[in-house]
Amino acid sequence: MTDLPPKPASRPDKVSLVKYAKLFRQDILSAQPARLYKAWMAEFRTPFFRSYLLNQPDLVKTVLKDRPDDFPKSSRISEGLRPLLGNSVFLTNGDVWKQQRRIIDPAFEGGRLRDTFPAMWEASETMVRRLSRHVGETVEIEAETSHAAADVIFRTLFSIPIEHDVAGRVFTEFRDYQRTQPILNVGAFLPLPDWVPRFHKKRTRKAAASIRALITQLTDARMQEIKAGTAPDDLATKIMTTQDPETGDTFSTEDMVDQVAIFFLAGHETSASALAWTLYLLARYPDWQEKVAQEAQCLETCDFGVMRHLRISRDVFREALRLYPPVPMMVRQNACPERFRERDIPKGGQMVLSPWHLHRHERLWDNPDGFDPARWETENGKTCMREAYMPFSAGARVCTGAGFAMVEGPLILSMLLKHYKVTAVGPEPVPVAYLTVRSKDGIWLKLERR
Description:
Layout lengths: L16 H10 L14 E5 L4 E5 L2 H10 L8 H11 L8 H11 L7 H20 L6 E3 H18 L6 H14 L7 H4 L12 H27 L6 H7 L11 H32 L1 H10 L15 H13 L6 E4 L4 E3 L2 E3 L4 E4 L1 H4 L20 H9 L14 H18 E5 L6 E3 L3 E3 L4 E6 L1
Parallel strand pairs: 2-7
Antiparallel strand pairs: 1-2, 3-11, 4-7, 5-6, 8-11, 9-10
């Protein structure tokens, strides 16, 4: 297959540590050598720590599924995200993390997806109406999917649309934060004690503080509604009233601010990335776009049961998550010495699990760089889905909202393509990693009514 979707260029195999740090800060995808798409394991050495990229499926399984307590999240990655996320479930480890998950998980179990579906449907219809003013025009689709994904989060979490004053301000502030925050800052490379400043950009710190202040307004108001017995039955109310079954504790307002920050980051930023890349891929491959549009004709009334009919849309969305996983890399730290692939790994090594490389691994996938939603029905696709596919991580720390995302994504995608045709225009987008995998200069699509 020659018509391959865009993939960032790889760096030379050998570069200096200073050059690597500079490249990593600019974009972690193009900062990696091409050999990682073939390697089962690779070691990177710095004067302060060693990193080991793991692509071998059984090693990934060991870290994420078999022995997760022996491989806690690395504190190095949290250095850059702490100003916004505080002590959220995304950054914590051990007993604190386990308690947070015991309180959060029930909100996303079983029938809760059915309960939140009307809010997703309303956000999807709102996006269709909003885009009607751009028919015949070229739009930067990442901006539009960001707006829609944020709308879904506020409707499902706080029962308010993005047009709500506070919700709209959070969304605006987050746009500033998103492209000022690198994946890593100096704290990720240097073993700094807690009292040493982390050198976050002033603009980044200001945006994070502003977002957290706005979220505090929402959580304070909800806490008062809960006490008064007037709170709506949405995700925020469910989470704030759930007791830890082991201790009886509930989240305080401060705890909830941390969690809402990661819900917004994970539920909005990642969904926006995935939707934008999916729409680009369908604009690039119009035969698949027509299949999705035809399937979408079943969207008539707000009925959760319709999701079982969106099989093509789901496979297309799944394939986009393979090629452009919103979170391209995850880092764990081994709590005890290990021996992987005949190599001794001292305690404190950085275990890098890279969906970006695993999903395109040349020794695992058929046509690894090609767009092929039909692969999920093949034996290779089914095997790789079990062993080499983790857009939402895997094991104990799998994303709580994975099921949520697999309803939201295909629904918004189908709703949009039921009404509009998209065509790629302008230069080919270049994938880069900011907080998630985005396009360096946006994704530009022409919008036409069907």
